[in-house]
Amino acid sequence: MRNRLLPILTVILAILIIWHVFVVILNAPFVRDQAARAGEEITTAQVIEQTFNQERPVLPAPHQIIAELWDTTIDKPITSKRSLVYHAWITLSATLMGFGMGTALGILLAIAIVHNRAVDKSLMPWVIASQTIPIIAVAPMIIVVLNAIGISGLMPKALISTYLSFFPVVVGMVKGLRSPDAILIDLMRTYYASNTQTFWKLRMPAAMPYLFTSLKVAIAISLVGAIVGELPTGAVAGLGARLLSGSYYGQTVQIWAALFMAAGLAALLVAIVGLAHTAVLKRMGERA
Fold first, then answer.
1. pLDDT recorded at residue 1
2. Phi and psi at residue 116, to the nearest 5°
């Protein structure tokens, strides 16, 4: 355990040291400018002290972000629109909806690609090409079109999450469904197994490790899609809305707190998928 924690703690410590150095470097010009305007002389020690306590710093100090997180998650009731828990739930709802749709779409496309050569040759290039379009360009178009036909709320954000999350599932499942050796496929044929039986008895079990690895990527990128989907809508709720309002009013501490909440939420979702991965493979008699 100690050997595992030491490298992690070393990296965290290095990040914190670098962070504190840049807090001073980036925030010091404002402190000196304020002192010059007031006609006051200021020492280096005073500059350093004030860089860590600015109301709207260029780069917030870690303790400012922690204080903001505590205030918006613990001190505020979760029903309050100032609570990060409230905003995280809004984003999480769109994330899970998009992740579910993206996973289903990805699995269906992968099955079609593996079992039909024409679909493989015609559809797979378009699947790959779809991910070359920047999501920040696609998101406003999706939202505008859906709003025009009366669809609003979680669905537009969920569709953006679907657009991002289906791709890793398709790629992973195609790889997984094609992973059984040819000799095993031939063995199933000697047993006169149908394509359906071969799929459920051989291909699908072989694809499970690939599927869960893809799902870890998909759940994280679904969260990114939900947040991006909140930005062009001028949403009033969600982590994207917190980022947007923070940028409007120069509330950098609020922005960083929302970013850390998003990162924590993504880590939690990936961990849940990882636990499901371990449980399923253990049930199948394999090692995760």
1. 64
2. -135, 115
Long-range contacts made by residues 125-133, C-beta under 8 angstroms, separation at least 24? Answer: 127/167, 127/170, 130/163, 130/167, 131/167
Q: How far is CA 34 from CA 1, 49, 60, in A?
A: 49, 14, 18
Q: Are residues 5 and 52 in the same domain?
A: yes
Residue 6 sits in which domain range? 1-59
Across 30-34, 42-46, 113-117, 275-279, the highest mean pLDDT is recorded for 275-279
Q: Which of the four pLDDT bands, split at 50, 70 and 90, describes residue 22? A: very high
pLDDT tens column, 89-115: 989 999 999 999 999 999 999 999 988
In a domain, 22, yes or no: yes
Report the range of poorest mean pLDDT among 37-51, 154-168, 271-285.
Answer: 37-51
- How far apart CA 273 and CA 276 sit, in angstroms, is 5
